[in-house]
C-alpha cells in the first residue's frame, strides 16, 4: 500500500493498531507457550554473540545509561523502581509520581520541601500494606508511626 508521506503511514498504522488491538491481544495469549519456547531457543543459539557484543560495547552502554538517567523518563523509571523495591503497592504509579513531582510543601507540617536532609521529599507509605499515604518531609516521615 503506497503512502504519500510518513504522516499518512503513521495515521494508517495507528488506525490499524486500534482496529486490531483485541485480535493481537488474543493472538499473543494463544501463542504464549510457543513464544516462550522460541525465545528460549533464540537465547541459547545466540548467547555467545550477545556476550561478545556486551563486552565490546560495555562502555558505550554505560555512558548511554548514565545520560538516560538524567532525562525526565530516566529519573521517573529510577524513582518508580526504587518505590517498588521498597514495597509500594499502588494502582496508578504515574499519578502518584506526578503528585510527588508537583508537591512543594510537606503534607503533614507544611514546610517548604528542598534538598536538605530534614526537608527533602519522601514518599510515605504503610510498611505493612504497602499503600501510599502522603508526600512528606524527611523529618515527618521518620517520626511517623
Task: Chart the SSEs and their pairings.
Blueprint: H1 6-19, H2 21-30, H3 32-56, H4 58-68, H5 72-85, H6 93-102, E1 121-125, E2 132-137, H7 138-143
Antiparallel strand pairs: 1-2
Describe the structure.
By secondary structure, the protein is mainly alpha-helical. A two-stranded antiparallel sheet has the order 1-2. The protein has helices spanning 6-19, 21-30, 32-56, 58-68, 72-85, 93-102, 138-143, and strands at 121-125, 132-137. It contains seven helices and two strands, in the order ααααααββα. It is extended. 62% of the residues lie in helices and 8% in strands. The protein has a domain at 90-143.
Helical proportion, percent range? 55-70%
What structural class results from the helix and strand content? Answer: mainly alpha
**What is the residue-averaged pLDDT?**
90
Number of strands: 2
> Runs with pLDDT <50, length 5+?
none
Summed up, what is this model?
This protein is mostly helical and 145 residues long.
Q: Features of this protein?
A:
145 residues, two-stranded antiparallel sheet, 7 helices, mainly alpha
